[in-house]
Design goal:
Layout lengths: L1 H40 L39 H9 L10 H4 L2 H4 L8 E4 L6 E5 L5 H11 L3 E2 L9 E3 L4 E4 L4 E5 L8 E3 L12
Amino acid sequence: VKLFDCAIQLWMQIHSSIVFVAACCLISVQLLCFAAFAMEEFNTSKPSEVPVVAPDSIMDDKEHGTCSNGIVTPVRWGCDDELADRICCFNRHWAEHAGYWLETEFLRSVDTKSDSPTTFYDPISGHPLFRAPVGRSWDEFIAESKSHGWPSFRDEEVNWDYVRVLKNGETVSEAGTHLGHNLPDKKGNRYCINLVSVCGNPENQ
């Protein structure tokens, strides 16, 4: 009887260990899948040369100005729909007024205390265009953006799968969305971007 009891206890211990190992493996697989999805959504690899230059033809007239469709509403952070559509699709030179981004819900909506990056999406296509802050804090991102009047991104914060720069510095999306301009300074490329041009939601959401 004692031998039988010992065998039962041994089996229960082995069974518990197997269950524990299986649970750990399942969690590991889920974490790997999540990481793969995050990397697929926003390509963190940097091309050999930046910015990625596109021909002016990327901004040729389409069904809706320079875009194939209008903005997908609702947009984020309380941005103005009409302003967003005009700046994104029917404009090559003008911008939202300086400091507009500070008048929206943007800073109240993002987690600036943890320095966790926020992804900025194209309101036309839903593609991820920028992810910031990267390589700096929220305080640094906000201070630089405030000093210039518009959200300012650096090379490592750009998703080059979908962002292009024309020879004159105009920064656009591959969908024909006008985003802003590249205005380099002593630190390197600085992409001065309209918030209404990156206030979209993820594709298919």
